[in-house]
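Bug report (template v2)

What were you trying to do?
Predict the complex of my protein with NDP.

What happened?
Run completed; filing so the output is reviewed.

Input:
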Amino acid sequence: MAVTDYDVDLFVIGGGSGGVRAARVAAQHGARVMVAEEYRVGGTCVIRGCVPKKLLVYASRFRGEFEDAAGYGWTVPQSSFDWPTLIANKDKEIARLEAAYTATLEKTGVAIVKTRAVITDPNVVQLADGKRVRARYILIATGGTPTYGDPVPGIEHAISSNEAFHLSQLPKHLVIQGGGYIAIEFAGIFAGLGSQVTVVYRGENILRGFDDDVRAHVRMDMEKHGIKVLVGCKIAAIERTEKRFSVLLSGGNRATADCVMFATGRTPNVSKVGLKEAGVAIAANGGVAVDEYSRSSVSNIYAVGDVTNRVNLTPVAVREGHAFADTVFGGKKVAVDHANVPTAVFSDPEVGAIGLTEAQARARLARTDIYREMFKPLKATLSGRDTTVLMKLVVDGVTDRVVGCHIVGEGAAEMVQVATIAITMGAKKADFDAAMALHPTAAEELVTMRQKSASYAREAAE
Ligand code: NDP
């Protein structure tokens, strides 16, 4: 079939962060592009993920600001919070963003179809109305969906983060299952807004995968803020009582809740897209199997973002989408480097992290140096708030390169984004030391930590 026989050069299934970036850049490279989105343009991040979540995080932090103000001489009148106002304002902003995303695509000449699309042949996509579109390339950017883990009796009463953004009222008592990003962020949001929150986590400590000092620090501060963190247990059943739920835990204890949320991970949206029919291979991690250029096992079908289950973060999906478009339509092969991806948990307290944890470094490097400080932030002196900031640099003791930076406290994510530049450039501890401090800031600690708190040689393998 000659190239001119195709209706489009690129058909993108999924209008989220990765799909939208790929579509726009491909169109800018001259490709004829169509995007199918069955829900709302913007995808998880814009519609029911990062963006609305961060707005809710901002809302939740006013409680602390009002409390802290007294030490600085302010009298704050009795504050009150109205959940419907927050949700309505958030919805307005999300609608504005959705329109902006749509307009940007249309301005670059991308056709948007608001429908489900299924691959029926490696070069054919069928829309819900039966229309068939012949595409030279297909990009799968269908993202992921919350998963509820093992089924438990009464699971139908539980919500996921999708529904948390649209609750009609603020829960008085909320039980959240999970100890990852979503559980810990929503625990902070709802506690800040006034809910009594219990986190139920199956492992030893929350935020598995983060540095152990970070995990301990976050949990300690969450508990200081009144969030109950139950570890080593799971929700065994959810029973409806008159107006609320009785939540049975695996150890036999019970918790009462008017809302039960599961934040137990997300699975890639690989079903009902026609992948099997088209011969697209699925990897062991459940995502579409792709090479370094995001190409699937079918040569003209690519996949980016959460559906590939590589690093499930928005900026990574955006990079992958951009690299795909440059590779296929821009005449420039670009592979995305998945090393040194910074990450943040917008919990209370906030976490920012990049690179190796102490445990990872000690397992991989011949020598690991640790620089670690915990200090009371200046702002907390007059406010009297019982909080400390944790800062930790993990350094390769042989090369002096900073291989990890982990921060817990106000502004952690902002600080780690900037530290990411230095670490990506291969900065050494000596470069951090040579940087002039900016006083008084929390970030200055990053360039003034002189005293190693520990140094480890890798133990010889048995
Ligand atoms: P995570 O993978 O971060 O956490 C899932 C949590 O659920 C873990 O604590 C896990 O425990 C627990 N869990 C999994 N299965 C079960 C089960 N069957 N029973 C009990 N507990 C279980 O997923 P999230 O849902 O929190 O977030 C999904 C993804 O979204 C994240 O991985 C991240 O990529 C992205 N995200 C990023 C954010 C950010 O960048 N700030 C914010 C929100 C989401 P265990 O640790 O034992 O495996």
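What did the reviewer find?
The chain has a mean pLDDT of 97. The pocket of NDP is lined by residues 149-150, 177-183, 185, 201-203, 208, 234, 263-266, 312-313, 343-346 (CB under 6 Å).
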